[in-house]
Design a protein that fits this description.
This protein has 462 residues and is of the alpha/beta class. The chain is built from 8 helices and 27 strands. The strands form 4 sheets. The protein has a 9-stranded mixed barrel with strand order 1-2-7-4-3-9-8-5-6. It has an 8-stranded mixed sheet with strand order 17-18-19-20-21-23-22-24, with helices on one face. Strands 14-13-12-25-26-27 form a 6-stranded mixed sheet.
């Protein structure tokens, strides 16, 4: 090896020599993957060895990598991740976070055609440029990638690097532009847990983008969407285009930082929002598969599910089961089990149709939901229920449960019919809600696109 190295130093240019040396060194390490050569700026880079297992299903292959750092080594120069040039492969579903834990993260993407490449990951505040490469399946365009192990309360950056025929690595474009890298924080353990909530945003309006940009400044841990992610999909060439223009594009500032957890609204089930009879929503929000952090009864779709953050259980329900969609009995039985589970500090419930509303539009929709669920929530000591559907902001209190209606994610707003006696605040304004979760209380702030506080309250935890 020493004589070969001397030969290369004598006869090959320095840049090529560095590349070949790093490549040959990589062959000596099991499953070593080198980052692409795209810059002449020298960066000290360490590459992780990896134990890789690939499980492929017709819906989405999952690639899980468990990494063990090797001793430091010099690699080829590596540019900032966001500087990767775009190629001729495009995203249909851009690289987004599906689930973030304290020690791992799950990301999703869909390409317009299968392509070889790797998900490149590094810790942002690390002194050296330590890059991990997570290979993707070259035969599947729609994929999950689980990255692990990670450190708790650390910031990471990830980007998808696709290999072209000439060996150059490029990133996919989205709507003709670079999507760039995703930066995310693993779950912190310290209070408060900060969560943004928005609903009924799916018109693709400027005000939605302004609200999202305001939310992105709040250093949130994740976002909850209370449904109707996309309206009027028939206006677009396809449901995929509708989600691209009315969800992925306006929510880009948040999707580059944190996961967004949603519930299906009535417009998600609209006929023009379906592909082959199934709502495209379930393609954009696919099943979660993490027994420790996510409870999801159906392996086929994320219709109703639960997540755990800082020992708080977040229960996401499908209220459309009261209006003809399947799984009403199954969801009700599962909900009873979730509310009876006493291992959590408390539970927060999310549903699209509100149990109580003063709105002039859809007031009767609340009745079947309220009849089925209010006593369950009150009996289980649920402190907070979040919903949308009514395009306004309202905070109500009934039998110890605080109900927040947050359907003001657009300019299409509904006034009040008659203010419910249980109502404590009602506003016709585009807005989002900021929640801070503590062990003994929940703080609520309703905020407009300019950062103005519209309403605030504190909810004690029983």
């Amino acid at each position: 090896m020493g004589r070969f190295s001397a030969f290369m130093q004598r006869f090959l240019p320095k840049t090529i020599m560095l590349f070949l040396m790093a490549f040959l060194a990589g062959l000596l390490v099991s499953c070593q993957v080198m980052p692409p050569t795209l810059s002449k700026t020298t960066v000290s880079t360490r590459i992780a060895t990896a134990t890789i297992s690939i499980t492929t299903s017709p819906a989405a292959p999952t690639v899980t990598l468990t990494s063990t750092p090797t001793s430091p080594m010099t690699a080829t120069p590596f540019p900032p991740l966001e500087d990767l040039p775009t190629g001729d492969v495009s995203y249909l579903v851009p690289l987004t976070l599906q689930l973030v834990r304290d020690d791992s993260a799950v990301l999703l993407f869909e390409l317009d055609r299968p392509t070889a490449g790797s998900l490149l990951l590094h810790e942002v505040d690390q002194a050296e440029e330590f890059v991990q490469a997570f290979p993707i399946s070259p035969s599947k365009p729609y994929q999950f990638i689980t990255v692990a192990p990670l450190e708790a309360d650390r910031e990471y950056e990830a980007i998808l690097a696709l290999q072209a025929e000439d060996g150059v690595f490029m990133q996919p474009a989205f709507l003709g532009e670079a999507w760039g890298s995703v930066r995310f924080h693993t779950q912190p353990s310290a209070e408060p847990l900060r969560v943004g909530v928005i609903g009924d945003s799916g018109f693709g309006e400027l005000v939605t983008t302004q609200l999202v940009e305001q939310m992105a400044r709040e250093r949130l841990d994740f976002v909850i969407h209370t449904g109707d992610v996309v309206y009027n999909a028939g206006e677009n060439a396809s449901p995929a285009e509708a989600f691209a223009l009315k969800y992925f594009q306006p929510f880009s500032p948040l999707l580059h930082q944190i996961p967004i957890y949603a519930v299906p609204g009535n417009h998600e089930y609209a006929r023009d929002a379906r592909v082959d009879g199934s709502p495209y929503y379930f393609h954009a929000f696919p099943p979660l598969s993490d027994a420790k952090w996510a409870t999801q009864p159906s392996p086929a779709k994320r219709q109703y599910y639960a997540l755990v953050y800082q020992n708080i259980q977040f229960i996401f329900l499908d209220s459309q089961v009261f209006f003809g969609e399947e799984s009403r009995k199954e969801q009700d039985a599962w909900l009873t089990q979730r509310l009876q589970d006493d291992q959590f500090a408390y539970s927060v419930v999310i549903t699209h149709v509100p149990l109580f509303t003063s709105s002039v539009i859809h007031p009767a929709d609340s009745q079947p939901v309220r009849q089925a669920w209010h006593e369950k929530f009150a009996g289980a000591g649920v402190p907070l229920v979040l919903s949308g559907h009514s395009h306004n902001y309202e905070r109500l209190s009934a039998d110890g449960v605080t109900y927040v209606v947050t359907g003001g994610g657009s300019s299409q707003l509904y006034p009040a019919l008659n203010i419910d006696p249980l109502s404590q605040a009602f506003l016709v304004s585009s807005h989002f809600v900021l929640l801070e979760f503590y062990e003994d209380q929940i703080k609520i702030l309703a905020i407009d696109k300019n950062g103005k506080i519209l309403d605030q309250a504190q909810v004690p935890v029983r």
